[in-house]
Design brief:
The protein contains five helices and eleven strands. It has 223 residues and is of the alpha/beta class. It has an eleven-stranded mixed β-sheet with strand order 3-2-1-4-5-6-7-8-11-9-10, sandwiched between helices. Strand 9 (174-181) and strand 10 form a beta hairpin. It is elongated. Residues 1-117 form the RCK N-terminal domain.
């Protein structure tokens, strides 16, 4: 998979390193000469250019990319890069960094953004995750379909604790994608039994989040 990253600062370089370790092809783009540190990520391609200019993106051959990540420290730049990547080059997946939480509402499909990543939101989510067993935590927002990546740590008193995944009637427009149990990452097969303390990750429509939380966190009394 070919990935272009606009912004070669600490965030962009860190993402590039992870992707390269996983066998992907990575291009880092930055207009600041001081940001071009080939020795820090030697396996990546580097381009000294302004990612907000069409000529630069032509040089980067953005149409060949499967994913574009707008990872600069400037939200305006990230929005422009996202819009150009989607509308001018038809990049299938565009991920954008949100620096200022007040701007998060702009990072949607109208600006070409498929996934908006807000560092403050992720940090607060991780804090909430550590202290709020039984509470639904929103980790990421997906623009298409008004869906979110959400997490809930299953409490012992949950109605579904001890139940097999296939026996749970999940709300519409929700999908259980991963179970994290200690250091293990489990595929949620129908025969997998849910245990107290499991971290459950779902992709869910925002309108279904409250229903999902009620299902997972409250043990219903027998009639």
């Amino acid at each position: 998979m070919r990935v272009a990253i606009a912004g070669a600062g600490a965030v962009g370089r860190s993402i590039a390193g992870e992707l390269l370790e996983n066998g992907h092809e990575v291009l880092l783009i930055d207009k600041a000469p001081t940001a071009i540190s080939v020795e820090r990520v030697p396996m990546a391609e580097w381009l000294l250019a302004d990612a907000c200019e069409i000529t630069s993106l032509d040089e980067a051959a953005l149409q060949r990319c499967n994913v574009v990540i707008a990872a600069t420290g400037d939200d305006k730049v990230n929005l422009v890069v996202s819009l150009l990547a989607k509308t001018e080059y038809g990049v299938p997946r565009v991920v954008a960094r949100v620096n200022n939480p007040k701007n998060e509402w702009l990072f949607n499909e109208s600006w070409g953004v498929d996934v908006a990543v807000s560092t403050p939101r992720l940090m607060s989510a991780l804090v909430e995750e550590a202290v709020s067993v039984g509470d639904l935590v929103r980790l990421l927002r997906f623009s298409h379909g008004d869906a979110n990546l959400v997490e809930l740590t299953l409490p012992p008193e949950s109605a579904v604790t001890g139940t097999q995944v296939g026996d749970v009637t999940w709300p519409e427009d929700t999908s259980l994608v991963t179970i994290i149990r200690g250091s293990r990452v489990l595929t949620p097969h129908a025969e997998e039994t849910l245990e107290a303390g499991d971290e459950l990750l779902f992709v869910a429509a925002q309108a279904r989040e409250e229903q999902l939380e009620d299902l997972l966190s409250v043990r219903r009394e027998d009639a």
